[in-house]
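Team,

Forwarding the record for the chain on the shared tracking sheet. I've put the sequence and predicted structure together so nobody has to dig through attachments.
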Amino acid sequence: MRKLLLLPVLFLYAFSAHSLANAAPSLTVTDMQPAGEAAYLTQIVVRFSENMRSSGQTEQDATTSPLQLKTSSGDLPAGKYRWTDPATLTYLFDEPVAAPLTIMATVLAGAKALSGRVLNKTVSWKVSTPPYDFSVAPYASLPAKNPIVALSSNYEITPGILKDKLSILMNGQMIPFAVDETQHPIPPGHRSIYTAFGYRIDMQADLPPNAIVEIRLAPGITFKKGGEPAKAHTFIVTGYKSQ
């Protein structure tokens, strides 16, 4: 009879122990920075709910890092992983990212803290720099002789690629042109990695009155610091107006 009474007690004890084990706190990610678009990207940081490394241990091999980074196009800009404190892992870029790209940051389930607790679910988020942006000036009427336009980009374009990706049509007909990749001077106080880069385009044809000029950029323009290639763009400017 005593054995029969002990069985429910043992069962309840075992059930309670199992429940307590399952209720034990697991490792969590408490902060991810930055998330979304970052105008000035120098690092990606993840912080855990408890210590992952001993104090003073800062080195982290990329292949075994709990934080993994993958770009949507091309290679991840050079950098290194570092534990900035026992619970915070940082990927430090060698230089500010000066390319239009999206990075998927992932901390895989199974990451283990010093306590032995593990991350139960994979945590992912996206980090991006501002998209590329092209513009053409002047938007006002072009002169009849020696018409010139300036193509601007918020990222430096791969040297030499514009002449292969650019075409100009005047009233539907292709016209010759020359590209000068010498950069426009940037005014003091406006210098940054996102300051516009300027490219001079000399049209080698006179414009008749009211001419419609199409400046076409074929897809695949790349940027000096990498990132996602540009899509096709077309800009319309007009010749001088007849009196």
